[in-house]
Each structure stands twice: as C-alpha cells, then as structure tokens.
Amino acid sequence: MSLRHAPEGPPRRVYAAGLLDATGLGMYLSFAAIYLSQGIGMSNYHVALILGTAGVGSLLGAIPVARFADRCGLRRALVVLFCARSLSYVGLCLAVDLWTAMGAAAFGGLLNRGIGPLIQTALIDGRSHEEAVAPLARLRALRNAGMAVGALPAGVAVAVGDEWAYRTIMGAAATMFVLCAVISWSLPREAGSKARRPGKPGLVGNGPFLRVTALYSALILSAILLGTGMALWITQQTDLPRWMVSTNYVLNTVLVVALQTRLARGSESPLTARRMMVGGGALAASGTAVASLTGRGHGWAPIALMLIAVVLMTGAEIYIMAGATSLALIHTPQEHRSTYLATFNLGFGVATVIGPSLISLSLNHGAMGWLAWTVFLSVAAVASHTVPLAPLEVRRPIPSGDPLATSGGSARRKPEGDTV
Questions:
Q1: What gap in Å lies between CA 313 and CA 100, rounded to an integer?
Q2: What is its main location (predicted)?
C-alpha cells in the first residue's frame, strides 16, 4: 500500500515505523518455530516451551508497557522499547541453547504486544475519536502488508537450509526495530511525546469499554478460525487440494490490505460502528456455516464454497476490527489512550492463546464443529447490539436547593473511566 496519500509530518513517520515494525514482527512470527528447530537445534518440546513462554510474556507485558509510556511520554518510550526489542532479537540471533533462547524470547515477548498500541496512540495523539478512525484503518492495512512481506524471507532461509541463513533472518528482524527506534527519535518532541497526566486509568469502572473488549475478543476468534482453523480443516478433514491453504492466506491478505481503509469508512459514527460489529459477527457466522459444507464432495464445488467462506470471514474480520476499534475509542479517555488501546489489543492476544486449542478440538467433530462456531458467533453478534453508543453518564448527588432537583434534570459528569 502506498504512503503517498498519508498526511505529511509526524503521522507519515509513524506509518513508516508501524510498517517496519510489522515487517520485523512478521519475520519472527512466521519463522520462530523453524528457526528454533533448524537454526539452533531445539527439540519440538523445547520449541513449544520457548514460544509458550514468549506468548504468556506478551500478555503480561502489554499493560505495563502502556503505563510506562503514559508516564514518560510516547516518543521516549518508543525509542527505548524498540531498542530493547532489537536487543532481544539479537539475543535470539546469537542463542546457542535452551536457556539463552528462552531468555531472549521471553524478554522480547514482554514487549511484543505492548508496542503496537503505542504506535497507534502516537498516530492519533491529539485527534478526536472521529479523526482517529481513518488513520487507524490505514495503519492496520499497512501493518497487514508488512506482516505478509515479513513472512517471505523465511521461505528463502528454508530453501538455503544453512544455519547462517536462519540467523541472518533473525538479525534482519533486529535491524528493522533499530530503524523503528531511529524513526521514533525523529518525531518532534511536541508530537505524541508529552507524558500523560499521572493517575489511574479507571479501566475497572469503565463497563462499556470492557464490554466492547470482551465482545471483540469473542468475535475476533473468527480471524483465528480463518487462519488456523481453515488450514487444519483442509489438511485433516477434507479432500480439498492442499494448495488451498496458501490460496486462502493470499486471498485474505490481499482483501484486507485492499479493503481495510475503504470498508472502515463511516465507522467514526458510533451507530455505524456498532452495526459493523453486529454485521461482522453475522458475516463470520455465515462464513463458518458455508465452511461446514466443504467437507463433502469433490471437484470445483467445495473449492468454490471454501473461497466464498474465506471472502465472508475476511469481510467479517475487517468490519469487526473497524467497528470495535471505533467503539473502544469512544469509551477511552484521551489521557490514557496507551493503556486502553493495550487492553483492547489484548482481546486479540487472548484469542491467539486460547483460539487454536478450541478450534482444534471443535473441528475434530467435523461439520458440527463449524456449526457450533456459527451459533457462538451469532450470539456474540447479537450481544454487540447492546454496546452503548456514548460514554455513560454518572449522576451526581444534587443538593436540595439545586434548581435541577425540582426540574427533573441531572448534572453531567465525566464518562466512566475518565477520572484520574
């Protein structure tokens, strides 16, 4: 995706940092298991242990990283965190045994899920909710493209098959994060770099935000179904050609990059954003229902049905992301955007942790497994209709002499969670 339509100045640099960050992360995510196994010589058990530790670390580190940025400022935090992440990847590049690899992966894991929300916050710093929606959609498209590009070098390293090739890829990922740190340092001090006001973000009391995050976590499981579930289904439960796995991946990536910004238009409206969440859940449920039909038959009919399912679930992914992000921003106080966006992004993190196991178990039951997901996603879509369209108001006790007490009015208060 071209950057020529991106705004000038700091936002353009943030887009560049987001793209490079996603490319480096794509190198790691597509390559980590192969690297640990073939490059370092880890057993499958040790590979699972290392990646599991890094995954848990990513969930635990997201909120502390955001709070760190709230206290010291986005610009400084991004520079420090990108440098730290680069060092963790250098550690992986030089790792020679279980403990060095686990130490580097765990340290990197603590940072992996926390940096993305900071990039989002730097991009929309000072923007209203309505102004933030389009830049975030553009950033998501760029990051999807970066993840796809980052996965390409892994195939080259596997083709070469030598240790130096494996370690070169990991070193290249570390270099990407150094470039991100340099770009972050070039951001003007006044652009997204001032420390936020100290105080608690009020997450626990912000019921609407937590409801959006919980529903997003449920609905975004459809994206894990599309990625992990489709591959397992095609290779284990159907007679579909194996090349459908890569075809589905390419089709999903192309559609997301091409349509992410376009389909997100209008999500700055709270009503439209909620309709997108509901509609995304309906599309996902429809996609799983269609996928349940691909386990029988031969020839082009099941292939066509599978492609239809991928298109439906890709549209669902885009609508769910756009609608949920917009609704989450509505219920996010400006001074704590880093922490709130980190919490919101944990929804996808939790889905990636629990999703593969749930999907694997459910799809063992064949078409009934897909239909169970149809019911689950339909219920989540209906529940999304209950999300408030505006921050809730808290009624303040009214003195007996206050004119509002006799007129039936109520004083306006800050939205829930907007206290410090």
A1: 40
A2: membrane
For the chain, how many residues are written? Answer: 420
**pLDDT 10s digits, 297-321:** 778 999 999 999 999 999 999 999 9
How much is the pTM? 0.79
Domains of the chain, by residue range, sit at 1-198, 203-388
For residue 207, the tally of other CB atoms under 10 A from its CB is 13
294 neighbors 240 (Cβ within 8 angstroms): yes
Superfamily of domain 203-388: MFS general substrate transporter like domains (1.20.1250.20)
CATH class of 1-198: mainly alpha
Residue 43, exposed/middle/buried by CB under 10 A (0-12, 13-18, 19+)?
A: exposed
Q: Are 328 and 321 in contact (CB under 8 A)?
A: no
CB atoms within 10 A of CB 98: 17
Residue-wise pLDDT tens digits, 98-136: 999 999 999 998 998 889 999 999 998 888 888 888 899
